[in-house]
# Entry
Amino acid sequence: MNTTKKSKPRKNPVVMFIHKMGSPPWFYNFTGKFIPWLWLIFGALTIWGLYLGLVKAPADYQQGESVRIMYLHVPAAWMSLLIYSAMAVMGFIALVWRIRIMEILTMASAPIGAAFTIVTLTAGSLWGRPTWGTYWVWDARLTSELVLLFLYLGVIGLYNSIDEPRKAARAACLLALVGAVNLPIIHYSVKWWNTLHQGSSISLLGGSSIDASMLWPLLIMAVAGKFYYAANLLTRARVTLLEQDMRKGWVREILKEKN
Amino acid sequence: MNAIPASGSLSRAFFALLRRDLLLAFRRRTELLFPVIFLLVVISLFPLGIGPGPQLLARIAPGVIWIAALLATVISLDALFRSDFEDGTLEQFVISGHPLTLIALAKIIAHWLVAGLPIVLLSPLLALWMNLPMESLGVLVLTLALGTPILSLIGSIGVGLTISLKKGGQLLSLLVFPLYVPILIIATAAVMASSDSLPYTQFLGLLLAGLITSVTLAPFAAAAALKISLS
# Structure
């Protein structure tokens, strides 16, 4: 990489930035500056969103107070899908260009995504009990969310079973990619198979059939979810980098500075 | 980087490999029977577990037979690359200069002929045991004929990823079962539709589409997986 820099001294700043992010010490130091802010924004948004959702927003005329579970359930469901898509994109980049940081980021995403999926399923079944009269039904959305959890567990399982970290990450990236190709097919086949879940009340293009007093806390919580993902992801990636590069010079220098 | 194979030798390599794999499989005939016996045993457990009522058995027959086929396939999958991986043949394939995708495809086809085709051929007997209506029998055989190759194809990706692990088998089932969900749903829907005398050709069309898609894509993914496992 150094030789290419020498031959072309003036590079597009965006390309330079991407190149720099691929270097572990640079990535470590750069993200270190942001992480406290990401956690702070996440905390502020969550408090704000939960206050609006749990205190200010009205109860639903049909679902009563249990509708407030939505402010956790729906953003978590969005995040569970978003993180899997992010894993597919990052995994593709990691496999094609063999960027180590991307491998680490993809693998660090998997437990966060799995956690969001579990939150979605748990919150959903707690909501289903008063509303549908049952904790679990084999409904399309529930089932595809469950299959998504299995896909996450498969990626995590494969990553943890192979000893050599880079090989493990590449294998798990490929699996995430295969899963991402299959996910829409799984989703539509399951949807066709059985549908009980209500349709989505929010749509990006058409009008949303949800009142603003309920929409705002939902959107704030959704943004909070993204900040949580970013903060958690970068924190995890930094720890993994330190672990993997334990014996390398830049980690020793950081340790020296800290002491 | 390697010597480019002479023209025509690509298909020759493909068929040579196919023949070799089939020959190896038939030299170990007892092992060949394990998945089939497994299938028979699993199917026979269902009437014992839930009662011999012919109505109930007929109702669950498509699902039971298909799930047993899934399990039998996953059990046999591990043999797909295992022995070649352990004795180093797989590495020789990689450096032979032939595309690994083609090699993977030949091995997958051999696997299906050895492990998938017996399930298809055996399915009339299974349908008889499970009291499946005679009219649905043809559809069941068709779904298995179209569906079991997809199981082998998708499964080959999972095997490629887990081949370097000592205990890959348990992990393999976690990796591939979620990917099998659409096939299970579509195939059993076809059989159920035919036993309710509803149209079922659209499901067979979907299975065929799935087969074509997975024949086209899965060997590439399997080859990529093998390369990662061998690195």
Notes: Residues 136 and 178 of chain A are 28 Å apart (CA to CA). Chain A is about 80% helix and 0% strand.
